[in-house]
Amino acid sequence: MSSTVTRSRSPMAPPRSFLWSRRIFLTLLTGFVLVPVYVMVSSSLKPLADVSGKFRWIPSGLTIRPYIDIWSTVPLAKYFMNSLIVAGAATVCSVVIAVFSAYAVSRYSFRGKRVFTVTVLSTQMFPGILFLLPLFLLYVNIGNATGIALFGSRGGLILTYLTFSLPFSIWMLIGYFDSVPRDLDEAALVDGCGPLGALFRVVVPAAIPGIVAVAVYAFMTAWGEVLFASVMTNDATRTLAVGLQGYSTLNDVYWNQIMAASLVVSVPVVAGFLLLQRYLVAGLTAGAVK
Amino acid sequence: MTTTTATAEAAERTVRKNSPGAARGPRRTGRIRRIGLPYLLLLPALVLELLVHLVPMVIGIVMSFKELTQFYIRDWGTAPWSGLDNYKVSVDFDAPVGKALLDSFFVTVTFTLLSVGLCWLIGTAAAIYMQGTFRGRGLLRALFLIPYALPVYTAVITWVFMFQHDNGLVNHVLHDQLHLTDKPSFWLIGDNSFIALLTVSVWKGWPFAFLIVMAGLQNIPQELYEAAALDGAGMWQQIRRITLPSLRPVNQVLVLVLFLWTFNDFNTPYVLFGKTAPEAADLISVHIYQASFVTWNFGTGSAMSVLLLLFLLVVTGVYLLLTSRGRKTADV
């Protein structure tokens, strides 16, 4: 029987039923995951005739034309720049603010600590649609009253996006900071660092993986958001999330260009994410999942 | 609105004040400073959460009691009070508006339960299968995370292309290659749109469950498995008796987060279907968005949003109550 065979190899060796079901399951799952990725990559290299007619698994010919045309069909470079500025600024602000908050919660006991963490976390459950309308009106009215253009500007979008990633970032960093031994920053305090010196010279360097993970998360959140981008931007400040829809509102739908543009837009985030994913898993293990 | 700018400036000042303080050293950390410091550190986060989440939420609740149509957008304070009218319209299930909201609600509940269930199942299975070491494991893990890493709109646009009637992959495979259907189906309109939405949502969502469960698995002490193996428990038994029970606390949070995200999801249906979703896939977020921005009736839209929030609060409360009680009895 198979169990005696496996037992003779090692007491921990998985049985054959496990190995087979694993093989089947992982193969099917890989197919499910990869088919859209294949469609994206292959279609971006097809001539227009291939993507307008019946779907073809194998392209009739390969061309890099779509990658040249995408920049002129819609002002993709401008959208790209807008997204980069908005997501970059939102990430930096979100991480800095989350570091301060998580340090306070992790290292100090003070009145209202629980109220703070619960309130911040519960904002995560709000439906975006609930505060979209009021925020829209709030930004318009702040603009009318003070002349600070929040509505339609990159600033307003940065402000909005950074609060989206803030709750999760704070939550995750609290767990991460908790796992940095207190003795370390107490030693730094004895050596003459202020509390903020201890934060930046001891706690932050020890929590770099967690901070990287949080930054990745914040950037992805801002880069992929559609709802607020579709309401709060105008022609000058439009981000990729809305701009990409420009390819399909034209008379002809240039699917090869859409796929090429999607790929160009995705590669930076996907590459960054895959490079840094081990930090995210480590960050989740230390922080969120406990 | 000068108060908001004032607080924003205050927040900026604290940040500026803190950074040189860090370099200057400990001498000035007096008693008052020490008590105030945690609050100063929290201030930026607090101000921003207030400005972007809590104040708008209060405004939203106020708006839901007003007759806020397009004529009052510029100066919404002057819109007349309408009492509970907006709520009455929203829950009058005999009239078209209320009926549509109720339908959308049921579609959303069904969709959410199926999507969360499938995401959790696939994510957990994948995480458990990927525990051992085998060739290509690292590569596979990276591949599995791609759907999660892709920006929502590029992923969904790709699915839109695949679901096209004439030139999409799905019809090509089902109709031309496997001959499963008599004629090519429409996926983005009509009843099939529910299946399309569910497929995209699961494709996009399961890697998150995978990621969290994978992290949770690393916190299960290896000794438990060793002890079980010594007692003669096989692989499947170890999974059932050790792995799944140990994942309980992780699952408690994971399922709740997945539920809230899926229920509130706007990006996926909006990119998949555009401004008006087909009835079979009319998720509540898009429904409210449409009710507010297409008809410019913010009052009714706000009332619907408040009802949605109340529903989510109740569900979350009951869920937390039930799961933490279950946890306590399990511990005993």
UniProtKB/TrEMBL annotation, chain A:
The chain crosses the membrane at residues 20-41, 79-103, 115-138, 158-177, 198-220, 254-276. CDD domains: TM_PBP2 (cd06261). SUPFAM superfamilies: MetI-like. Keywords: Cell membrane, Membrane, Transmembrane, Transmembrane helix, Transport. It is found in: Cell membrane. Residues 80-276 form the ABC transmembrane type-1 domain. Its main location: membrane. It is a multi-pass membrane protein. Belongs to the binding-protein-dependent transport system permease family. This is Carbohydrate ABC transporter permease. It comes from Streptomyces siamensis. The lineage of its organism: Bacteria, Bacillati, Actinomycetota, Actinomycetes, Kitasatosporales.
